[in-house]
Amino acid sequence: MALALSAVTTAPPASAKDMKFAHVYETSEPFHKWAVWAADEFEKRTDGRHTMEVFPASSLGKESDLNEALGLGTVDVIYTGNQFAGRFYGPIGIAGAPYMFRDVDHWKAYRDSDLFRELAQGYRDKTGNKVITLTYYGQRHVTSNKAIDTPSDMEGLKIRTPNAPLYMMMPKAVDANPTPIAFAEVYLALQQGTVDAQENPLNTIRAKKFYEVQDYINLTGHISDSLLTIVSGITWESLSEKDQKILTNVLEEAAQGATQDILKSEEELVAWFEDQGTTVNQDVDRAAFREAVRPHLTGDNVEWSKKTFERLQAIK
């Protein structure tokens, strides 16, 4: 930690042209639109003292690269998933676990809670980087060629998941067969039957056209996914207190805007998919799935304590 503090205190002030906001999402997505808005607002509200350029679509590297660059100060602001941040400070990954949240209101309450602020501080103590807020990414659902109503319907199902333990937790809990496959290869794997199913938010299912090669979208809602907005500790310490407040405000406002856009699109997409001829299965027994996953959310195989889990569940 001494080395991290030394890096923070000895780094030169961030020049206006050096400030970079990097992420892995496409320019068509709300996350990018609101990142650009935040960059423009930051320049405007600081009277041109700072500018910020947004680098979308992995143009400065994949997500793991951006997390590393954040610590080096070569990138100033990033969006990143809870699980990626959890690689540096395990407890903050709790927001990426299946059925951790009862609904969107519970997720919002966590975002605004003392618990989230404490976990963000723990991450900062570990890395030196400053967590600002959370942006809603969307509920993840299972697509397949059959209806999935209960956990038993997934027994033996070969389902593509990202190669990370929390994404595999729900499939393993219901005796499915989670199969990591590179994201770019998922469409072909579904089309050829290499895997039977996959899981992603509705926006991603549309963007990647998975509905073309899957008959059902089963609204399991197993992960209420979100993105952390994080500022490099080197950059943060180079800003005046006034500009730190301005940056915080614009990033929080951008997160709120993107969250509302995603929530609106989730509401609209059910009808859109049905118009495409895809069956949207809204009869999933989420309570049964939640019950199957519950024993896996505490214990030696997760990076947070039972107390942290219970505090999150108690948030209203």
Automatic annotation (TrEMBL):
GO annotation, biological process: transmembrane transport
CDD domains on file: PBP2_TRAP_Siap
Cellular component, GO annotation: outer membrane-bounded periplasmic space
Transport recorded as keyword: yes
Sorted UniProt keywords: Signal, Transport
Leader sequence segment: none
Pfam family, one: DctP
Cellular compartment(s): Cell envelope
Family per similarity comment: Belongs to the bacterial solute-binding protein 7 family.
The protein's name: ABC transporter substrate-binding protein
Organism of origin: Rhodovibrio salinarum
